[in-house]
Design goal:
alpha/beta, globular, 24 helices, 6-stranded parallel sheet
Length: 891
């Protein structure tokens, strides 16, 4: 609670709480933040600080939104509210400035007003960018303010809340010795000098709330970052046609229908994948990049590389789509472009008369020079057509990079010579619209009445002459931020610059850039080791585009689109876990959140992590054993004895050689899990608090299951002495989770081990359920004397010989043997196939290492003779494909 009812105990001894709120890209996080701010103000917070983006334009954008949406004022009338709050900086100090704003200047004159506000208990509201000089100046200002205030010396607490917008970049600290200082400067807002991490003033209680759509680094950053989310986390839901409020889901049902839906990864990558409404257009990445003869568009030959030729094709397809969709949207709106310089009497009149924004986004690479080259390429494309310039001639010409204008006559010539390539988009839009008609609010649409000749005329008369090309980056040659709203002049309101614009950008896409009316996206940027959080932020095509989603398209290489699809799966898993924890937190799950990554991408490049798969592998081996002098030795022998003491136990002989014993009736996934969990070890009892153990708690939370997957004995909890693939309790947890994932296949973030291209929640789950493996249990015999312990003597088990590790005397060097199979003996890993048909056995050593989906599994015990002649027990498993898998990013 805030103000006079503040709960001191909730803050702990440090008097500081930190947490994170997770949203979606362009889903309205800032609006949520302002709504939370309103609630905080209702609870009488004393100091409310907004941390805006690192770029000054983004800061001013946040400031203007705060004025209108939270303060209920504007730059002209904000002074009227000075009696009920103290706003820093004042509008006249920052808005409209053409030079860099000096933080000392806008803070200097506010000290007395802020002191008066604290005494009178009116809130102090501060909005600053996450620039180091602004943060340092503000930290000094706040420290001096609180240090001199009469209230600081009273018993009544002073509450401070810091809301950090886009908190996954500048606010992340990757290492204890990092040279990054912004997080430390943010902490100085409440804690300075030797008192860290305590608040500097004993009556000050601070809450830091990070807002982000990509929290991977926030959860994975080291604990030394004072901004790491230690006390709470929450996830924002988005409007869609599905979802419940209880239990919480990643989306909720929006009664307004399609036009009010958030069109994010679910719409772009999952539910319409491969259907008529699929918005993703993929191209195979060229196998070679060698120069070759390619027929240019219009029948002209040009010597260009396979890569350049493919990019040229993609650019052409994207531009045609953009132009045709622009004409269709314009015709459906029944609006038209006005002559340049037209002035409207009011803002409402301008909005009513002017077409809505229609944008294309082209992301060629991270390099700024490539952005200008991309603008030139678009101009060249508009000029190279039959009867105009040949492709080779266009590439040889020079163009002014700062004055990139489309050639209208060239586009008209293309429209005539490539009629089929243009008109096909109208038919595709109609098909997409029909496919979306099943959604609420996606009913009949006037697009079905449009004829191509009408669209063609609109292209020539309205669209081609009015499209701009804009480069957005930090280069001095680039354009300023986009202008989508009418601008006020001395005589009225004029049309914005970017009604129809093609934007070319790179890194600026990853933070705060909103492209209104984005319909066409061409993404060609690559990365040696992609990071999910960085590339998630670049997907600016997400947003509230339901009203024209039937015409939205993303063009990219197929492998990149597949990465986007996988990013979405891991993102859904993370949000689902947070939402589950908000409903019914499970002990241990709130300590952190499980972050996923992939074989070909990292969760984040901001923090070092390791990849840990969920599946233990095709043939995991438990090489650890309990030594004869261990407390659990006799108990483990008893477990093996009871496992073999069954009527269906039979000898397994091949070519007259006794290979071992095998049970003829297999065990289920859960029965094998229970058997593995019966084995105990004096030196291996992994604690539930370990990060490797917690991943199972996170999955339990995600699936809203009360019974745990991971069940170590809990006799003397300690470290994880072996890798998960060698831990019986981790393997048992996986088998339990496999069964749970078959019972509830809706879990996001999973992919089957036999097809990592398809999310688990989109597989043919009936086929996977029918192929669920059962495990045969056997004991492999060796060439040595029989086991002599009282528990095992009656089974005449012939002990095996295996090397024992010098470094770890309770572990074997290796487990599996007989790696030279023959027709008469298939090998240890295929031990059970001698029972149910050697001809059915897969070729594990010469082909895939996995048993195919639908085949049985194997649990094979090895009774090994240790140096003193006593028997010890190890075991190996052979697991078929078809189980669920993911890759966790662990610290």
């Amino acid at each position: 609670m805030i103000g006079s009812v503040l709960d001191r105990e909730a803050y702990g001894e440090a008097r500081v709480r930190t947490g994170v709120v997770v949203g979606s890209v362009q889903s309205g996080k800032t609006a949520s933040m302002l709504a939370v701010a309103a609630l905080i103000l209702d609870r009488q917070v004393d100091v409310l600080i907004f941390l805006a983006g690192t770029r000054v334009p983004l800061w001013l954008q946040t400031y203007e939104r705060l004025l209108s949406q939270l303060d209920g004022s504007s730059a002209d009338v904000a002074w009227k509210r000075d009696k009920v709050r103290t706003l820093v900086p004042q509008p006249e100090d920052v808005l409209g400035s053409e030079t860099r704003v000096d933080p000392i200047a806008y803070l200097r004159g506010q000290r007395r007003r802020a002191e008066k506000g604290l005494i009178e208990r009116t809130p102090l509201i501060i909005v600053v960018p996450k620039e180091d000089d602004h943060l340092l100046a503000l930290a000094k200002f706040v420290d001096e303010l609180l240090g001199s205030s009469e209230r600081t010396h009273d018993s009544e607490p002073i509450s401070m809340v810091v809301l950090d917008d886009e908190a996954d970049d500048a606010s992340v600290l990757d290492a204890a010795d990092s040279g990054k200082v912004t997080p430390k400067f943010i902490e100085m807002l409440w804690s300075r000098g030797p008192s860290k991490p305590l608040t500097t003033h004993k009556n000050v209680f601070a809450t830091y709330i990070a807002y982000t759509a990509t929290p991977q680094a926030n959860f994975l950053q080291h604990a030394h970052n004072p901004l790491a989310p230690r006390d709470f986390f929450a996830a924002l839901r988005v409007p869609s046609d599905i979802g419940t409020t209880s239990p919480r889901c990643v989306s909720y049902a929006e009664p307004g229908g399609l036009s009010g839906y958030y069109t994010g990864g679910d719409f772009y990558y999952d539910r319409f994948h491969g259907l008529a409404a699929d918005p993703c257009i993929g191209y195979p990445f060229p196998e070679t990049d060698d120069g070759d003869e390619h027929a240019g568009e219009g029948g002209v030959d040009a010597v260009i590389s396979d890569f350049d030729a493919t990019r040229w094709t993609m650019l052409g397809d994207a531009l045609r789509h953009y132009f045709v969709s622009g004409a269709v949207r314009l015709l459906l709106s029944k609006k038209h472009f006005h002559k340049s310089g037209t002035v409207f009497p009011t803002l409402e009149a301008a909005v009513a008369e002017l077409p809505s924004a229609h944008s294309m986004l082209y992301h060629p690479s991270a390099l700024k020079n490539d952005h200008f080259a991309a603008a030139v390429a678009i101009v060249r494309w508009s000029r190279s057509s039959e009867g105009m310039l040949s492709l080779a001639e266009v590439h040889a010409q020079e163009f002014d990079e700062q004055r990139a204008y489309l050639d209208v006559s060239g586009l008209e010539a293309r429209l005539e010579s490539e009629a089929d390539l243009w008109s096909v988009w109208l038919e595709r839009f109609k098909a997409s619209t029909a496919a979306l008609a099943t959604l609420p609010g996606g009913g009949p649409n006037a697009i079905h009445d449009l004829e191509w000749e009408t669209v063609k005329a609109c292209l020539c008369e309205q669209v081609f002459p009015n499209v701009n090309i804009r480069v957005l980056n930090s280069d001095a040659r680039a354009s300023s931020r986009p202008e989508f709203l009418p601008s006020k002049t001395d005589t009225g309101w004029e049309a914005p610059a970017d009604i129809y614009s093609i934007f070319i950008a790179g890194n600026v896409l990853s933070r705060g850039l909103t492209v209104e009316g984005l319909c066409t996206s061409l993404f060609l940027r690559g990365a040696r080791e992609p990071a999910a959080d960085t590339q998630m932020q670049m997907q600016r095509w997400f947003g509230y585009r339901g009203a024209y989603f039937a015409m939205c398209r993303v063009f990219g290489f197929s492998d990149q689109l597949e990465l986007f699809r996988q990013y979405h799966g891991t993102d859904q898993a993370l949000k689902s876990e947070i939402l589950s924890a908000m409903d019914a937190p499970i002990a241990g799950a709130r300590d952190s959140i499980l972050v996923l990554q992939g074989e070909t991408f990292r969760a984040t490049s901001k923090v070092e992590t390791k990849r840990v798969p969920l599946h233990p592998g095709p043939t995991p081996s438990i090489r650890m054993f309990e030594p004869p002098d261990g407390d659990c030795y006799d108990a483990n022998l008893a477990v093996l004895a009871s496992t073999l003491d069954v009527p269906d136990l039979t000898a397994l002989t091949t070519d007259g050689v006794l290979r071992g014993l095998i049970r003829e009736i297999p065990l289920s996934l859960l029965e094998v899990a229970s058997l593995l969990e019966k084995f105990t070890y004096s030196r291996h009892d992994p604690a539930l608090s370990l990060e490797m153990s917690q991943r199972w708690t996170h999955l339990q939370q995600l699936m809203r299951i009360s019974t745990p997957f991971f069940r170590p004995p809990g006799r003397a909890p300690g470290p994880m002495r072996v890798e998960p693939s060698g831990c019986p309790y981790s393997i048992a947890a996986y088998l339990r989770f496999w069964q749970a994932a078959l019972d509830d296949p809706t879990v996001p973030g999973l992919r089957p081990t036999d097809n990592d291209k398809v999310p688990w929640n989109m597989t043919d789950i009936k086929a996977y359920r029918s192929a669920k493996p059962e495990f045969y249990v056997g004991v492999r015999f060796g060439p040595l004397q029989t086991a002599q312990s009282e528990q095992l003597r009656r089974f005449d088990l012939q002990m095996m010989t295996r090397g024992i590790s010098e470094r770890h005397p309770d572990q074997l060097v290796t487990l599996w043997g007989s790696r030279n199979p023959s027709e008469k003996w298939l090998g240890d890993q295929l031990f059970d196939y001698h029972l149910h048909g050697p001809e059915k056995a897969p070729h594990l050593l010469t082909g895939d290492k996995w048993r195919p989906r639908g085949h049985p599994g194997l649990l094979l015990f090895h009774v090994v003779k240790e140096p003193l002649g006593r028997e010890v027990i190890c075991m190996g498993l052979s697991i078929p494909q078809g189980g669920p898998d993911h890759i966790a990013a662990l610290k």
